[in-house]
Amino acid sequence: MGIIFVNKLLFLRTKFPVLTLAASHLAVSALFTRAAMYAGVFKPRDAKMDRMIFAVAALQTLAISLGQASLKLNSMGFFQLTKQLQVPLVASIEFFYLGRRLSVKKVGLLVIMTLGVCMACASDVQFSWLGALMAATGTACTSVEAVLYSHLQQSLGWETLQLLYKTMPLATAGMAVVAMYNDFGVSAPSGGVGGGGDLYGAGSGNFLTGMDALGMTLFLSSCALGMAVNVSSCFVNGKASALAYAMLGLAKTITVILVGIAFFDGVPTTRVAAGTLTAICAILMYTKFTLDDKAKAAALKSSGLDVREETLEVMKAPLMEGGATKR
After folding, report:
1. Exposed site from 81, 217, 293, 317, fewest CB < 10 Å?
2. DSSP H or E run through 104
3. Rounded to 5 degrees, what are φ and ψ at 323?
4. Four-residue CA torsion sign, 166, 133, 202, 192
């Protein structure tokens, strides 16, 4: 929640562009993993830069870039709606790619919580076909990225900082290229090639002249919080599951809505209240069913019976730690 406040204040105080800020977050995350490695917090994993590591970094860059392009071409309401599709997308990817199954009741709860959040944030829905394509592609990139982050840690034995040590420099380089083109490029008035703030930036780097001491403090605070978000997100993916991470995204959207109502210019309506309450109830019920499944699995295991994953499906609930099942 802290990064929401800081970024909001930063954008109100300065004209700092989103893409440059995103690249800065990734760069600080890369520097943090380097510092942690030199401090002996973890040992780097001796592995060649395989295609999966590169794919994760590329997907992260694409997801951020396409998300900001979607914000430029579509309304905020449509942008929020497409973000919620990450939950069904992650569940589908895990089913087809990893063979992970969910019970019917859990699938129903996932649908209900997604629809609840969509109801809460569905306002002023406007889009173009190009913008819709970019939004859908960006959400798909985020979903695949989350599944790969989870798979690399749970199935291939990567630690969180080991993985970020490999992916963050690549993601930073990719994001820096996009940000440099968009935020510092020279815009051609006759439609020629050039950036000039096309996606959501200030263009030509003019935002630097408006940075005062408070703006710089907000920027540095945003970078520190962004690094914490990157590390914690990867950690949740590894300790829980990609689906749990996607469900946390729903909780984040609800938090943003409530923060907007409480501290900014958000307007509380019956639709927002109904959608928020529906989503929260579905998340709580999903968590309860998961706890019940874990208790049954523990009881069967203690009785000496062979518990197979196909017999009793156990998925990780949001905000819970534990190793994921391997196939």
Report:
1. 217
2. helix 104-121
3. -75, 150
4. positive
Q: How far apart, in whole angstroms, are the C-alpha atoms of residue 272 and residue 256? A: 12
What angle, 0 to 180 degrees and rounded to 10, lies between the N-to-C axes of helices 242-263 and 129-154?
A: 130
Count of residues in the chain = 327
Report which residue type is found at 160.
T
For residue range 174-186, list pLDDT tens digits in order.
999 998 888 776 4
Rounded Cα distance between 247 and 240, Å, is 11
pLDDT category, 209, cuts 50, 70, 90?
A: low
pLDDT top residue among 14 and 143? 143
- Short-list 120, 143, 132, CA closest to 59: 143
| C-beta of residue 267 within 8 angstroms of C-beta of residue 178 | no
pTM: 0.76
Mean pLDDT of the chain: 80
Dist CA 278 CA 3 (whole Å): 26
Distance CA 93, CA 114 (A): 17
Radius of gyration of the chain (CA): 21
